[in-house]
Design goal:
single chain; five-stranded antiparallel sheet; 15 helices; globular
C-alpha cells in the first residue's frame, strides 16, 4: 500500500508543476503580445502626430490662406500695418485670391490677381506679430515722429545686416531705393514703420527690392501690405519637365522648342556673368534648381527664390566653419574645402554659379537622351563636351578657366541659335539688342 502511494504521490505534484509552467508560458506570451500592441499603438499615434505637425499643418489650403489674408486686413483696419497694396486687398477688392502655392514652416506663397495682373503674394512668416518690432517704436513717444532721413538711416543698417555687408564707410542706401524713402515728403506713421521693418527682416524681400532696379534677372516687387509683398507672376521651372520651363506659356512667333531652349540657356549664361560682375561683391546662389527660376515672355531668366543667395562677405562667413573632412564644408550648392591642419573650411567657395547651372540645368537639357537623333551632330557633341567640362571645372578656384568655359558655351549656343533661326534680333554674343541696358554697380 505504501509502495502504491509512493508510486502515485508524485503524479499530482508533477501535474501542478506542468500547469504552473503552462500558465507562466501563457502569461509570458500575453505579456509579450500586450507589449507589442502597446508599442505598435505608441508608434502609430506618434506617426499621426508627426504627419499632422509636418504635413497636414503645413498643407496648402485655400481656407487657411484666406484666413491669413483676412487677419492682415483686420490689422490694417486697426491701424497696425499698412502698404500700397492694402486698400485694394482689404477695401476695394481689386486683389483677387487664386490659390495657395506653397506653405511650410510659416512661409506663405499665394497666387492672386491685382487689378487683373497675376501676382504672387509672399511672406516668410505667417503672422505680422511674429516679426520683431522696431525697437524705437517701443520707447518713442507716440507724439514724436521719425523723419524720412531717420528711416533711411535705420533701414540702411537693417539692409546691410540682412545682406551681410560691411556697414563702415558710406552708410547710404542704394540710391534708387533711398531716394524713394527720402521723397516720402512727410513723417512716417507707426504702421508704416512697423510694416517696413517686417519687410526688411525678410532677406528675399530685401534682395529683390534693392537689386530689382539693377538687374533684369531678379523678380520685381510690385507692392506690399504689412508683412506680405507682391512680386510679378512668372512661369516657373519644373524638374519633371524635359524643357524645365513650360515653353507653350511664353511661346511667340515661329520659334521652335530647341530654339527657345538655346535662348534661355544664353540668358542663364548672362545671369551667371552679371551676378559675378555687376555688383561690388559677387552674388552666390546656393540653391540652384528649376523651381527657383522663371522666364519672362522675352525668355529672360529670372531668379524668383533668393532665400539662399548671398553676397561674398556673408558667403565667406557661412563657409568658414569647423570641419573634419570636405563634406563638412558643403553648404547646399556652395562648397568649400576642409583644411585638415586647422580643421577649418576655406572661406573661399570652390565651385561657381555657372558650374552648378551646368550640372543641374544644362546637362539634363543637352543630354543625348533628350536630343534624340540630333545628339550625334557635331555642334551638339561639342556642346555636350563643353557642358561636361563646365561641370568638372572648379570655377571658384580657377576663374580664368571658368571664363574660358563660359566663352566656349556662349560661342556654341550662339552658333546653334543662328543655325536654327535667321532672326537678327539677337546680337553678337547672344545678347538681346533691345534688352541691353547699363548696369550700375551696387556700391554699399
Amino acid at each position: 500500500m505504501w509502495s502504491l502511494r509512493r508510486a502515485m504521490g508524485p503524479e499530482p505534484s508533477r501535474g501542478r508543476c506542468l500547469l504552473r509552467w503552462l500558465g507562466m508560458k501563457v502569461c509570458r506570451r500575453s505579456t509579450l503580445v500586450f507589449a507589442l500592441l502597446w508599442f505598435g499603438s505608441w508608434v502609430f499615434l506618434n506617426g499621426l502626430v508627426f504627419v499632422h505637425r509636418t504635413i497636414l499643418s503645413d498643407y496648402c489650403t485655400d481656407d487657411k490662406s484666406k484666413k491669413i489674408l483676412q487677419r492682415v486686413c483686420e490689422e490694417y483696419r486697426e491701424g497696425a500695418l499698412t502698404g500700397d497694396l492694402c486698400e485694394d486687398l482689404c477695401v476695394s477688392g481689386q486683389v483677387e485670391y487664386r490659390r495657395c502655392l506653397y506653405y511650410e514652416n510659416g512661409k506663405k506663397v499665394i497666387e492672386a490677381r491685382w487689378r487683373g495682373t497675376p501676382v504672387v503674394l509672399k511672406s516668410k512668416l505667417e503672422n505680422f506679430s511674429s516679426y520683431e518690432s522696431l525697437g524705437l517704436l517701443e520707447y518713442q513717444d507716440p507724439a514724436e515722429e521719425l523723419s524720412p532721413l531717420d528711416v533711411v538711416f535705420y533701414a540702411t543698417l537693417e539692409i546691410r545686416n540682412s545682406l551681410g555687408l560691411d556697414i563702415s564707410g558710406n552708410t547710404s542706401l542704394p540710391p534708387l531705393w533711398g531716394q524713394r524713402l527720402r521723397e516720402h515728403g512727410q513723417a512716417y506713421s507707426r504702421a508704416e514703420l512697423a510694416s517696413l521693418w517686417s519687410l526688411l527682416q525678410q532677406e528675399e524681400y530685401t534682395f529683390l527690392r534693392v537689386l530689382q532696379d539693377l538687374s533684369r534677372h531678379l523678380a520685381k516687387v510690385l507692392g506690399s501690405c504689412g508683412h506680405f509683398y507682391a512680386v510679378e507672376y512668372l512661369s516657373a521651372g519644373h524638374a519633371w519637365d524635359q524643357n524645365i520651363f513650360s515653353l507653350e506659356e511664353v511661346s511667340a512667333g515661329p520659334r521652335t522648342a530647341r530654339d527657345m531652349v538655346h535662348r534661355i540657356a544664353l540668358s542663364f549664361l548672362d545671369m551667371a556673368w552679371r551676378f559675378d560682375n555687376d555688383f561690388s561683391h559677387r552674388l552666390h546662389l546656393c540653391d540652384i534648381k528649376p523651381e527657383n527660376f522663371a522666364i519672362r515672355k522675352d525668355l529672360t531668366v529670372v531668379a524668383i527664390d533668393v532665400d539662399m543667395a548671398f553676397f561674398e562677405p556673408k558667403m565667406r562667413d557661412i563657409l568658414e566653419q569647423n570641419c573634419t573632412n570636405d563634406d563638412d564644408c558643403n553648404f547646399f550648392d556652395c562648397i568649400s574645402k576642409c583644411n585638415m591642419k586647422t580643421n577649418k573650411c576655406s572661406s573661399k567657395r570652390r565651385n561657381s554659379n555657372l558650374q552648378v547651372i551646368c550640372e543641374k540645368i544644362f546637362r539634363p537639357w543637352f543630354s543625348p537622351t533628350l536630343l534624340g537623333a540630333k545628339a550625334g551632330l557635331p555642334p551638339q557633341v561639342d556642346l555636350q563636351r563643353a557642358v561636361q567640362e563646365c561641370v568638372e571645372t572648379a570655377g571658384g578656384e580657377d576663374e580664368e578657366q571658368d571664363r574660358a568655359v563660359q566663352k566656349r558655351l556662349l560661342d556654341l549656343l550662339t552658333g546653334l541659335l543662328h543655325q536654327g533661326t535667321s532672326s537678327d534680333h539677337w546680337g553678337k554674343g547672344g545678347e538681346d539688342r533691345e534688352g541691353i541696358h547699363p548696369h550700375t554697380a551696387l556700391n554699399f
